[in-house]
Amino acid sequence: MSFLDYAPAPESRAILSLRDSYGLFIDGEFVDGRGTPFQTISPASEERIAMIANANDADVADAVAAARRAYDRVWSKMSGRDRGKYLFRIARLVQERARELAVAESLDNGKPIKESRDVDVPLVAAWFFYYAGWADKLDHAGLGASPRSLGVAAQVIPWNFPLLMLAWKIAPALAAGNTVVLKPAETTPLTALIFAEILQQAELPPGVVNIITGAGDTGAALVSHEGVDKVAFTGSTAVGRAIAKQIAGTDKKATLELGGKAANIVFDDAPVDQAIEGIVNGIFFNQGHVCCAGSRLLVQENIHDEIVDRLKARLSTLRLGDPLDKNTDIGAINSREQLDRIRELSDAGVAEGAERWSAPCEIPENGFWYAPTIFTGVQTSNRIAREEIFGPVLSVLTFRTPQEAIAKANNTPYGLSAGIWTDKGSRILAVADQLRAGVIWANTFNRFDPSSPFGGYKESGYGREGGRHGLAAYLAPAPIGQAAVARSATKPAITADASAPEPAAKRPRRTQKATTKGSKR
Amino acid sequence: MPAPVNAGTALATARERALAVLGGEPDDQTLGRYLHGIPGVDAVGLEQRAAALGTRSIKTTSKAWALDRIIELIDLTTLEGADTPGKVRSLVAKALNPDPADPTTPRVAAVCVYGDMVPFAVEALGAAHGDPDDGLISVAAVATAFPSGRSSLAIKLADTAEAVAAGADEIDMVIDRGAFLAGRYGEVFDQIVAVKEACRRPDGTSASLKVILETGELVTYDNVRRASWLSILAGGDFIKTSTGKVSPAATLPVTLLMLEVVRDWHRLTGHKVGVKPAGGIRSSKDAIKYLVTVAETVGEEWLVPHLFRFGASSLLNDVLLQRQKLTSGHYSGADYVTID
Amino acid sequence: MTRLAVPKTYKLYIGGKFPRSESGRTYEVAAPDGRFLANAALASRKDARDAVVAARAAVSGWAGATAYNRGQVLYRIAELLEGRRAQFIAEIEESEGVSRAVAAAQVDESIDRWVWYAGWADKFAQVAGNANPVAGPYFNISVPEPTGVVAIVAPQDTSLLGFVSAVAPALVAGNSVVVVASERFPLSAISLAEVLATSDVPGGVVNVLTGSPAEIAPWLASHADVNAIDLVGAGALDWISLEVDAADTLKRVLRPENGQDAAAPALGRISAFTETKTVWHTKSLR
Fold this sequence. Notes:
Chain A: It comes from Agromyces lapidis. Chain A: Residues 491-521 are annotated as: Disordered. Chain A: Keywords: Oxidoreductase. Chain A: Residues 31-475 form the Aldehyde dehydrogenase domain. The complex is a heterotrimer of chains A (521), B (340) and C (286). In chain A, 39% of the residues lie in helices and 15% in strands. Chain A is an alpha/beta fold and 521 residues long. Chain A has a seven-stranded mixed beta sheet with strand order 14-15-16-13-12-17-18, sandwiched between helices. A six-stranded mixed beta sheet of chain A has the order 9-8-7-10-11-19, sandwiched between helices. In chain A, strands 1-5-4 form a three-stranded mixed beta sheet, with no helix packed on it. The termini of chain A are far apart. Chain B has one domain (21-328): Alpha-Beta Barrel (TIM Barrel), CATH 3.20.20.70. Chain B is 46% helix and 10% strand. In chain B, helix 12 links the parallel strand 6 (238-240) and strand 7. By secondary structure, chain C is of the alpha/beta class. Chain C has one domain: 3-Layer(aba) Sandwich (Aldehyde Dehydrogenase, Chain A, domain 1). Helices cover 43% and strands 18% of the residues of chain C. A five-stranded parallel beta sheet of chain C has the order 7-6-5-8-9, with helices on both faces. A three-stranded antiparallel beta sheet of chain C has the order 3-4-10. At the A-C interface, helix 8, strand 18, strand 19, helix 15 and helix 17 of A face helix 4, strand 4, helix 9, strand 9 and helix 10 of C. Strand 18 (439-442) of chain A pairs parallel with strand 10 (274-282) of chain C.
């Protein structure tokens, strides 16, 4: 036998007590949806996990109304201290039910249990802990004294980190005093619904968080609902763009976390073994279903062959298979649709002349799988170097000088993240300065922390999640007092409130809206 | 990263390999240039990789195989000022028959003792003394003014020669950490070469040389990496983490790093060098992490006594307890394994 | 006998130069009483395109300058403006038909806003940035960086103050701007450009277009090489369409404000055109 085959080490599913079907979580209760229910499956086996309710427009309206009631009657009036205590409760309950959540996540999403267990779920708890403490300290959020919450937040999240994205959205929203209607992705609703049970255990007041399930049309109905004050979306740039257009001219504030095509830049003095790990972690973590994945490896030309050789050797040790096996490194692709897209782009890479190499691994019979793949000889003009593949596919390009590396790294409409690998401190800082990306990892990659702001430049979206910045995204400065209104037109004064970031166009825009109504499309 | 060196027969000797890799005489300057030209180590990344390897879950058949293999890779060790012939005989008895209740239990690879204890170990082993590949047990002796290494080269060589003459199959030497940290790489190199020479027996064969870096005193990973390269260039058959007398002794990140050097050396020259983590590995669980790290870094073919060893004493009994659990299905207790 | 005055030709300001509109068009700028004041350049979409090219080329130098240096350059504008105070007062008096005192108040406030924003240049990052206490062996810091090229539809109700109030904050962090001046009161914007040209502001950092915001703004809103658009003065335009166009490349958008006090000084005006960049690095003694 081969020791490296490792006997199966499956995580037990016994910890799960799933229902056969799940309703919508509105106003603190599970209710039936009025759309046609759909099933959620395990992408690793294609077996049905549960039936999921489908929210139609009326259900969306109910959820928004519940959130509005909870906002008006309870949550906006509650002290920050008590809001914080609810969030602390949630954090603890997540920790208590961590294994159950991890198993459910891996089952529904297809990600390896070691990632849901060691990364996703611990970060979920950390996110609630972090923002819990903010709830009674909003004066220090950077918006001046007594900032106000926005109201009802509509949150639409993707399938790649279902529960973690939920935490990124709900924790700061509630800490800031908003109520929430959240829609998880169609293919990964399970953990959000278990989370709803956690909210019941936490005795969170009904309506403060509502979770509605459905597909893109449900999300669109939610985002465009007029009762919504804040939109937070994580997903593709195409949908993000549509949302930005949809809410143009409204009072809605938006945070958009969209696509990426991150460069992972490896200089010839890099700590090579760690760089290899960083490259692997950068693109093969979560099957490459990561918006900030290091999907473009920019390697200094003089070490290209060496790096590629080492990378191939390393990839050959990756274990693809059952997401619930504790030794699985690469789990299942989340859906057939996504698998098709990965295949299409990958084939395009071959057609454009790049050389494809896939790690030798056995592909299970059922489910959706894609072996870790590297493309060498990729040119900056190739589709696989420009489009987000969102799968375990790495494009390798070369550079000669730091300037060229920066130019190539920035040569994309995206700007979410980037990696730098070099032993030279001055180069790290200078390159980091010039990369047009919201998160730069130097000699590491794909690290996340609730205190660390995350978000993109350019078409990777706007707004930040995490840290003080992520809190501010759910707040507005205190309404400007009479002093500002009374400013003389002839003697404008720089008054004390000048230092408070103004609600960009919030106040005047209301006036504006009234005057322009009817003249717009 | 240096280009691969042709690993043909022309480079059969350590010195020839070293000259080819270094491109010059192994003096302080040449060695310094070479060792400081090796890519650095990012400590955080190294430790994370080691931690990730440590999360592998080894169950059922894999675990059974691993437990037996751990035993077969152990240098069962006693290195006390209080060591006596009686203690060494007891150690040897344990090495020969680790679990009297289960004759299927494999033997350890070697016993590891101070030089003056070698004759007692050899005598106690009797016909069982020999190559672990043949199911026999080797005698390893620590030498070269172990553990500090603070004495003259002449004494270190005499220490070594005496142990070899007494029947030691393997010599565990210590490098001069002071010389290394002061940048006198040539001196460290020359000492290893000289000790290796002292390992030679009259019949032309040679005791195997394990070079102890004492990583706890080198402190940084960059130092460990350089010392590993230096020791391999000088002809060490094994690189070993620690004496067991300095804390921290073996750690998984340090061992991973040394395995990476061994892997790179193999890529470069085609020549295989062994690795021996020693000190501080007490549980089966920890030892299995090392096996995983070896298998996933240099490959499973390294999990043989000639390429990987555990320097340990209490580890053996923990492995036996786990082994009994696997066989019987229930947990065992300390009274059901023998003390040596 | 009175001296015959020498009138000024008001042109565009693009890339540090004062070209006429490539279209050759001008439009008549009149005082409130209908008196002819000047022919201002009627910028075309190609002028807007040229201005974006100039702005893009200027970003790296301006963003790359030290914050201390940017602060001094912005303060230098205030100094030069102070020296030409009388010129601006007279121009505003004529253009807006207001009293000398009202015009003077506008000029003085404009100067003071430059001073206020100049002072932010080397403090803003400290206030908007963070050291983040992440749970791991990492150095982690967040800093605001300029968004890039910012298009601005300047407030339409004042000659100078609105223009300064919208432009100054965008410059603080290191953006370069393409500004469409007030359609009715474009003269002070061009006079200010003369100040900018003789101060230490690098060419291309501020580009001024005069003409019809309704004509030019859509080209800026849809321009893929513009990173953000400030619609503060676009209230009378179809600004929702502009916001929709801007969404094509996910531009950062500030929505319209009305009144004389549009774009009142605020830290939020600086941060609106910055991107928070978070840098992680491992740390270890080993």
